[in-house]
Amino acid sequence: QSALTQPASVSGSPGQSITISCTGTSSDVGDYNYVSWYQQHPGQAPKLMIYDVSNRPSGVSNRFSGSKSGNTASLTISGLQAEDECDYYCSSYRISSIPLYVFGTGTKVTVL
Amino acid sequence: QVQLQESGPGLVKPSQTLSLTCSVSGGSISSGSYYWSWIRQPAGKGLEWIGRIYISGSTNYNPSLKSRVTISVDTSRNQFSLRLSSVTAADTAVYYCARGGDYGDYGMDVWGQGTTVTVSS
């Protein structure tokens, strides 16, 4: 199945805000509020940062926020910090003949 | 808190079956309304959802792998397992197990550290 589309890389300076997009279709992002975002540092397992488009799990910094417009979801990181430099993946439920879960292509965030 | 640990052979021959187990500690696999998932990640590439299982035994699989995948749960051992048949080099990846259900229906908040499986003769 085709992955959700993310930019390969996004960069910003410390303290700035950056936004990562995640583009799907009306079969996934567009019609369902089941978008999640994961943070993955090198050699580590992914960490859930956002679920159901805009909700933060307990313990996740409020510098991370999520939103959605049409077929595109977004993750915004405000007050960018050096520790935010890593990979980020979106994911979504996708309607199909059976329930399906699909990930994005991944975005490398660089803190300049 | 709940922790997950993957285990299994790190090397599997082409055409054989890959078998991995995810052991759950710090809580019962049968408690709550959780689902238990497998995800994989080839080196330097993105994440791919393999499938998930509920304690009831209900499963959902990635259609692209469905004909080769079986996920099962053993509540007596507090673990769940992945079997992937007829493997090829394309199945070489880090395999993660994960738990979902605490944060919406599709947010997975507890992950194992991952185990590397190489398919090679």
SSE ordering of chain A: EEEEEEEEE
Dominant shape of chain A? globular
Low-confidence stretches of chain B: none
Question: Approximately how much helix is present in the residues of chain B?
Answer: under 10%
List the secondary-structure elements of chain B in sequence, H or E: EEEEEEEEEEE
- Please state roughly what percent of the residues of chain B sit in beta strands, choosing from under 5%, 5-15%, 15-25%, 25-35%, 35-45% or over 45%: over 45%
Structural class computed from helices and strand pairing of chain B: mainly beta
In angstroms, what separates the terminal alpha carbons of chain B?
39 Å
Q: Main β-sheet of chain B: number of strands, strand sense, barrel status?
A: 7 strands, mixed
Question: What assembly state would you assign to the polypeptide chains in this entry?
Answer: heterodimer
**Which spans of chain A of ≥5 residues are poorly predicted at pLDDT below 50?**
none
Radius of gyration of chain B: 14 Å
Keywords:
heterodimer; A: 112 residues; mainly beta; 3-stranded antiparallel beta sheet; B: 121 residues; 4-stranded antiparallel beta sheet
